[in-house]
Amino acid sequence: MLTLSSGGNLESGGVSSSVGKQILKTGQTTSYRTGDDGDIKAGRETNFLTLEINNPFGNLNRFTKINGDSGTPFEVEWILDWSTYSNGKVLGYVNYFWDLGSFDWDSGIDFCLTYSLEGFSGCRLANAKEIANLISYEKEGLNFPPFNLSGGVNTFSSSTLFLSTTFAFNTVWNDGRITYIAKTQAHRILPVRTFEVNGTNIT
Predict the structure, then answer these.
(1) Whole-number pLDDT of residue 133
(2) Which domains does the chain have, with CATH numbers?
C-alpha cells in the first residue's frame, strides 16, 4: 500500500483519505464506439441532472430553482447546483442570464459585482470552471431543465488567458466550446453567488 508522508510523498504502509471528488460526468450518453465517453460515462453523479445522494431538500435533483418572497413569478431567478455543495455552501447561477445584455469584460465584471437578484447580493462573474460545469456534451447549449436555453450565447468568464492577458476565456454554448476572446468584445455574462445552506434555509 501507499500513503502520503507529511511532506506529500507517497510511502508504503497505509491508505490516504480522500481529499477531493471524482470529476462530474460530461452528460454524454450516446456512444460512437466501445470505450468512448458515451460508452463508459465516467464521473460522479447518476447522470448529468441526477445526484447520487439527496440534496438538502430531500431529492436527487442536481438543480433547484429558488424565487424571492414577493409572491410573483420571476423570469430571472437563481438556480442552485447541488453538484457544488460542500461544507454548507452551494453555488447559485442566474437563470435567463442571457437577458441581462452584452458587456465587454471589465464592464461585465463590474455589473456582476453590483448585481442583486431577489434580495441576494454579493455576486461575481462566473469563472471558466464554473461555466464549464454546466456544459452537457449530449445537448446543445443549456438545453436541459431548468435552464432550457438552446442555441449559441457566447458567455464571458472571469478567467484570463495567461498567454495573452488581453483575452478572457469564453463559452460557446451551442457546441460546448471553451475558447478565448478579446476582453474588449461584447458578450453575455453569467452572475453567480455562493449561498449558505442551513437545512432548507438559503441565505
Answers:
(1) 94
(2) 59-202 (3.10.100)
pTM for this structure?
0.85
14-40 per-position pLDDT tens digit: 544 556 788 888 889 999 999 999 999
- Cα gap 199→201, rounded to integer Å: 6
Q: How many residues does the chain have?
A: 203
Question: What DSSP string runs through 64-132?
Answer: EEE--SSSS--SS-EEEEEEEEETTEEEEEETTGGGG--B-HHHHHHHHHH--BTTB---EE--HHHHH
Q: Which residue has the cell 490516504?
A: 16
H-run or E-run covering 112: helix 105-114
CA distance 57 to 48: 18
